[in-house]
Design a protein that fits this description.
Largest sheet: 12 strands, mixed
Strand content: 35-45%
Oligomer: single chain
Number of strands: 37
Radius of gyration: 28 Å
Shape: globular
């Protein structure tokens, strides 16, 4: 018990030292955490974390002296969640258990405890819990496997400790929530050039709506005159102090088309509403994305994103997503981004490669009332062969992929970018099987991915349309759909876009509807006198028809747009209309290394599975009696020296 006594002495010391001071933000117990995020909208629940190839360490600081809950949810709700609950009693004893939720209500204690409590304390009015777990506990029935996917973290807390042996008191509506994060992002820091300059894209005292909890604000931004080509080498967020819990993410789009850029510079409006200027609908190529929990983004030391050159963007659309859970009428914000650029050009120009579906009404179409509908787009080996082969020397260029952003709209549930070479599927370039439209960010790779001439790609997007009574048409609006992957690559080549769409004839064939075309090339249902669009809009969709259309995406004829086919290129490219080739050697489903199932008695280091039983769950064992005696003596000496 000496270990417990030492903990009590330390808590008593801390209480004495802070008696005459106000509560201040607490520092984490370690200085090497690589990530942190505020999970709630009141700055009362903060998370720190770090990870390696096998495990992840979390530390939560919560403004409460009661219990704290933290977990992983498949959709933001409790059912199916993996949860830990812990608290520190007034005598310094910790309670901590690994649990799972089958429904809304008190989560059940897991059969096997896969979380280990490393530290627990109450300091001022905060509870601190530090704990670790394996990324893959192999407990699929009761734990959540942590991958590179978006994770929906659920959190809760209560002002009081539970009574031993009694059910947990309900946390209430105001002290719970959900926050989407990437937990396994790889932070990188690259030394910048001595002559680096910067400019800022900032909202200007924007008033966030008080009648709804989510607002998207857009800002037109004309880039400064660069007087020659420069390289963007870094960007990082500027969050207005006090608004850390309200600024959810930034997305910056490159604009295309010919319009009066000066007229729209610093023009602010609510995105995706009728007030959105028609000209700015052409701003659809994502070039920057930052989300809560993320830090600065660095370009590789040998590449930068070109600005100021003849083919570079001159106008951007800056989108900010705000959370206003308390419906505050006094929430104003001037947050934004700081862009770092240099006239010292790096070895290569970085650029964006867009893969996925052609954004048009039929190009990214999804039927209604689908639990899961898999849409598939392609990029052929002919496109990459043409783009990455020099027509004069026949030499090929390799592309280096160093970051990726995935993009769908509200119906998107998962996105995967599959990579194929000579019929053999390589590891996926990127995937998010728990995609969240409200959480988008470019994600740097630990190791760059190489694209070679002749490689091909398959982009899969899964849509959930159970809340739609009519079809989801492809388009730029959030109620329409897109299926895109934006890859940061270098060097810059003619391979900027490789997009496909299923031909209307293949769609009609899958649905048993022959098509004809009028003089505007609009598909018509043969002999019915109605357009194919009207037919799809009024069709009685069944599981069979949805399945047939899904199969057509894998076997039907597609049209491909490949940016490499330049009008000035005299080489004859492959046909833009083709049947996708099946992958000869697909990637295995997974390569998990899980041991044979044990007898279920392994409770790990997190506790005995019986919260409230009276057993103490401590962060460390006492060890040999001599060590406990020494630790207790040290505690007494420290307190004596401090107080004198």
């Amino acid at each position: 018990m000496a270990h417990t006594s030492c903990g009590v002495f330390f808590l008593a010391l801390i209480s004495i030292l802070y008696t005459q001071t106000e509560a201040v933000p607490l520092n984490p117990t370690e200085s090497d955490y690589t990530h942190d995020a505020v999970l709630d909208n009141y700055n009362k629940y903060k998370l720190f974390w770090k990870f390696d190839s096998e495990k992840i360490v979390f530390e939560v600081h919560v403004q409460t002296t009661g219990y704290v809950g933290f977990g992983f949810s498949p959709n933001g709700g409790m059912p199916g969640s993996d949860i830990v609950i812990g608290w520190v009693k007034s005598n310094g004893q910790e309670r901590f258990t690994d649990r799972h939720a089958l429904h809304y209500g008190e989560p059940r204690v897991d059969d096997k405890q896969d979380y280990t409590l490393l530290y627990g304390a109450e300091i001022n009015d905060h509870t601190i819990l530090k704990f670790e777990r394996k990324l893959d506990t192999c407990d699929d029935a009761q734990d959540w496997m942590i991958t590179g996917d978006t994770v929906r973290l659920i959190w809760a807390y209560h002002p009081e400790d539970p009574v031993d042996g009694q059910p947990l008191p309900w946390h209430g509506r105001e002290t719970r929530g959900v926050r989407s994060l990437y937990l396994l992002d790889e932070p990188k820091v690259i030394e910048l050039e001595d002559d680096v300059k910067m400019f800022e894209m900032l909202n200007s005292n924007v008033k966030v709506h008080s009648h709804k909890d989510t607002t998207y604000m857009c800002l037109g931004f004309k880039l400064p005159e660069f007087n020659g080509t420069h390289h963007m080498v870094k960007y990082d967020p500027i969050i207005q102090p006090g608004n850390e819990a309200n600024v959810h993410h930034f997305v910056v789009y490159q604009c295309h088309g010919d319009f009066n850029e000066t007229a729209y510079h610093n023009y602010s409006y609510e995105c995706y509403t009728p007030n959105m200027p028609e000209d700015l609908h052409e701003c659809d190529t994502m070039i920057i994305a930052w989300a809560v929990g993320g830090g600065p983004f660095y370009f590789p030391e040998n590449a930068g994103f070109s600005l100021g050159g003849p083919d570079d963007p001159t106008f951007l659309l800056f989108e900010t997503h705000y959370d206003n859970a308390e419906y505050s009428d006094t929430l104003y914000d001037s947050s934004g981004l700081r862009i770092y650029y240099t006239p010292t050009l790096r070895e290569s120009d970085a650029t964006l490669l867009s893969l996925g579906g052609i954004t048009s009404p039929l190009g990214t179409f999804a039927p209604p009332q689908a639990e899961s509908f898999k849409y598939v787009a392609y990029c052929s080996s002919g496109c990459t062969e043409h783009a990455l082969t020099d027509p004069q020397t026949n030499e090929t260029t390799d592309l280096h992929v160093f970051a990726l952003a995935l993009h769908t709209h509200l119906a998107g549930r998962a996105v995967r970018v599959r990579h194929v070479r000579d019929g053999v599927e390589l590891p996926q370039i990127g995937a998010d099987n728990h995609y969240d439209f409200n959480y988008q960010e470019f994600r740097s790779f630990r190791e760059e991915v190489i694209i070679k001439a002749g490689d091909s790609f398959i982009v899969e997007c899964e849509y959930g349309t159970m809340d739609r009574q009519t079809p989801v048409w492809g388009g730029l609006g959030t109620r329409n759909e897109m299926c895109l992957a934006f890859l940061y690559v270098y060097p810059r080549t003619t391979l900027l876009s490789c997009l496909t769409m299923l031909l209307p004839d293949s769609m009609g064939q899958a649905l048993g509807v022959p098509l004809t075309y009028d003089n505007t090339y609009t598909p018509q249902v043969a002999g019915e006198g109605i357009s194919f669009f009207d037919y799809l809009n009024h069709k009685n969709w069944t599981d069979e028809s949805r399945s047939s259309l899904e199969m057509a995406h894998q076997q039907g004829m597609v049209y491909e747009y490949c940016s490499a086919y330049d009008e000035d290129d005299e080489r004859e490219g492959p046909s833009p209309v083709y049947f996708p080739e099946p992958v000869a050697s697909p990637l295995p489903d997974n390569n998990r290394q899980c041991p044979p199932e044990d007898d279920g008695n392994n409770n790990g280091g997190g506790g005995n599975g019986n919260v409230g039983s009276g057993d103490e769950v401590q962060s460390n064992g006492c060890g040999p009696l001599g060590q406990c005696w020494i630790a207790t003596l040290l505690c007494v000496l420290i307190i004596f020296v401090t107080l004198n």
